Amino acid sequence: MPDGIVPLGKIVTTHGIAGWLKLNPYNSESPLLSTLSDVVLVRDETRSAVQVQSARPHRRQILLKLCGIDDIESASQWVGSILAVREEALAPPAPGQYYHYQVIGLEVFDTSGARIGTLKEIWSTPASELYVVAGLDKEHLIPAVKEMIAEVDLAAGRMIVDPPAGLLDL
Q: pTM value?
């Protein structure tokens, strides 16, 4: 993502014929998605600033109506784009909390200091979020729950996890 731009989700399809879009949010629990007015659509290296006309929840997705996109043809061109906001639009996280974009790319270690890999993606599931950690020879799925996340050090670029025995062998 370009500097200063924070991804919030991916536009996955159109909805109806009046220009509505379906967004798969990276964090479906975020109240930010229902209060957005100015957003950035990112596709490859192209960024387009647009205004949100309307947004509403739809199952685990968000239905978006963007200003100037009034039919299915103009909406279709944005399918596959990332919906983002400028970093300064975000409220500072509470102490001990962080945004998804801040942990993507952290090096992940276990409590004994062994490197597990790099956090490359976060999946939102009904039970919890899962950190997708790319190791040398395979990916690891680590539940993002306080019992397993021992430390997140954004300044040092690392996360320390305490997975139960056998989890990293799956």
A: 0.69
